[in-house]
Amino acid sequence: MASRTQPARGMRDFLPLEVRRREYVIRIIREVYESYGFEPLETPAVENIETLLGKYGEEGNRLIFKILKRGEHEKSGEADLALRYDLTVPLARVVAEYQHQLPPFFKRYQIQPVWRADRPARGRFREFYQCDVDVTGSRSMIVETELCAAASDALEKLGFSDFIIRLNHRQALGGLLDRAGVERAQHEAALVALDKLDKIGVEGVRAELAERAISAEAAQRLLNFFREAAEVERAAEFVGDESCPPQAASNRAVLGRLLEFIGDHESGARGVEELRQILDYAEEAGIGARLKLDPSLARGLSYYTGAIMEINVSDLAGSLGGGGRYDNLIGMFLGRDVPACGFSLGLERIIVVMTERGMFPPDLERAPVDVMVTVWDAAGAGESLALARALRRAGLRVDVYPETHKLAKQFKYAAARGIPFVVVAGPDERARGEVALKDMRSGEQRAVHREALATAIKESLAR
Amino acid sequence: MASRTQPARGMRDFLPLEVRRREYVIRIIREVYESYGFEPLETPAVENIETLLGKYGEEGNRLIFKILKRGEHEKSGEADLALRYDLTVPLARVVAEYQHQLPPFFKRYQIQPVWRADRPARGRFREFYQCDVDVTGSRSMIVETELCAAASDALEKLGFSDFIIRLNHRQALGGLLDRAGVERAQHEAALVALDKLDKIGVEGVRAELAERAISAEAAQRLLNFFREAAEVERAAEFVGDESCPPQAASNRAVLGRLLEFIGDHESGARGVEELRQILDYAEEAGIGARLKLDPSLARGLSYYTGAIMEINVSDLAGSLGGGGRYDNLIGMFLGRDVPACGFSLGLERIIVVMTERGMFPPDLERAPVDVMVTVWDAAGAGESLALARALRRAGLRVDVYPETHKLAKQFKYAAARGIPFVVVAGPDERARGEVALKDMRSGEQRAVHREALATAIKESLAR
Hints:
homodimer; BirA Bifunctional Protein, domain 2; Rossmann fold; 3 domains; 5-stranded mixed β-sheet; 16 strands
């Protein structure tokens, strides 16, 4: 019986056109990241299991793919290794391991797959690529700004014009919750509820806060704040002018409201001040209109300590990417804290949206070769190989039909594959040092001297 | 306590320079493969475990990394998934799954990591990249020839000039063993012993054949053949002339001896005929001098059915790559046979040799950025971000120093990283619409108008 031939659940095979599309997106992201001075890093797909456990919260632990011990230990049913779950924890490990080889500010990008045993759904896979940029070693808000600018440039270069980078701050959030009267032990539960404001609305969040045993008074204060923030935001959009465009005006208004609510709450006020700094820098970095201050943005990962960001477009429920500051994670490996901040673009979702919107350049669908050399007969196969060699040396991409089928069948194959040129070296042509060159697009066929063949094809292709 | 920070056993982190070297090699291999009309394919790192089990022999099964079932099934200690062990079995699965979407001759390349729980050693890792090219759908020896030519071109383009592609044929080997009187059931055991001829010599192989219960008479006949083949090979090398260079003369002589020994053994003679065909085609494809007929080459994998190849250089014990024809493997997935032949280059070993021989272009060690913009003070940070943005728009790779440290410290950082240009925008310069541009290589510093900055840097870099 033949074996199953589908890929494993939630995993995908990428046929040539899909690989080309993925490589196109990766190439552009990489070029932009490099223009910001980020350098490439790669880490193994497999990590020691204790490197990953306890870094992603309860849910994360559950979704990690674990690898059985080998040999005589296989029977124990225990795992000692696990598949990479994100690119941030391996970076933290790397910064700890190679601290003396890396520059004080390590700006790295990493574009590699990660694996999560999540329930597969539309746009959610068990193997997917992340495109991360991170800077370690600095607490400056220049870092947050440059990360947002790099992600923004990458999306623009891919052809996106309608995305928004939502911005918030974990410490501002903490101040907000404190001021509203949510107890510290309930902060995390409150954040999970708040994060759904967009999806389930004010009353939905109120119900969820109650469910999570947060007092009705605290809930009311929180929801009042968000209602007022939304109001000042809307009002400010209409007063924008040349010196302060609508998005900037609205961000300033929300920032003002936030500071008012948080007052002299120390870490909260520091968070708001960092947000103000990022918004100011963003104007000068040319991405002011992209940033939208959103006090309800929470983001799931537990390791964030400062600013958090998320990129959205209107026609996608999830985000195209996100990130934030995590000043304590490297310390879990190194024993002393190293500040860090990062941004991750989700390759799969970018590709989903680009495919739906038809954003890929059409030349990715071009035939994989410029010219196919036919094989006249068994005795002529050598001549075809020699021709192919000469054409490749001239820089062309060349296929040799591998069988001595009838020429009509060989031409049909070339046509089906969209190959623009076909070369025939029959005995008559060979005797004259010529070949027949057929332009499959025009149907025109002509005799060309062997020596002139590569040039003839290149000239036709350039037309 | 800080966690362990080394990568898992046998796995490696690749810091920026190493990634650049790997990408350089991969880019060249990919370009050459594409010039032969191969198209990219990618498959998941994780396969259903039954896809892999039973395809690589006993040893292979043992070396497969197995993934624990998840959720409530985790406790069972059972595995349902496994890590990719090579790129050939996934290709066979893909050809079976997408048979109606793929062209009749599917020429694909695939450059991805594989995982084997092997004992780590010099040049042997548990995660390593393979660079495979395969053609499915044809039994023509044009395929073998093109595969050898592509691998040869790739190595030449990387700067290798001293490699040899050893060539043999499973059916010729079978005929040889039959004729020598080795029983069919002992063929595999005999091949394992023969494969070591280079390493352990004639008497070593004789002892190993005896150990594997192969009769002394059969062993004697086999070893006689190899002794004679080596003699005709050496003799022929001296009679090579312009019309038949030494390698071709020696191949022909060995081929003649092989045919003589195998006689009218049907499949054996067919194998020899295919070898003759490949050697003839190879002359026309321009790789005649690279191919060396080696009747003792066996190769480990059990799925080969026809020609087998292996690439060696003198200063590496193992091979740089290898491959062969496997006409039955796809049938294990599809239920009907589809002929196939492939070649795999080993990225890690290529990099080991290139590193030892100093074959990488020096510009891979260039600084990752063209220019660093310093930050004068907190108030000037925005101006630095705006400058960086303008320089990036002009196509330069730009770093912004993230902190308001003393300028001397910022310059020191740029020097340590080998960054060729540093820009300072102090208050005086800013007032004049200028910046100070320092060429870190010459030490020369000059005032440049903001608008002229990108051009000034580009001109200096081009010099």
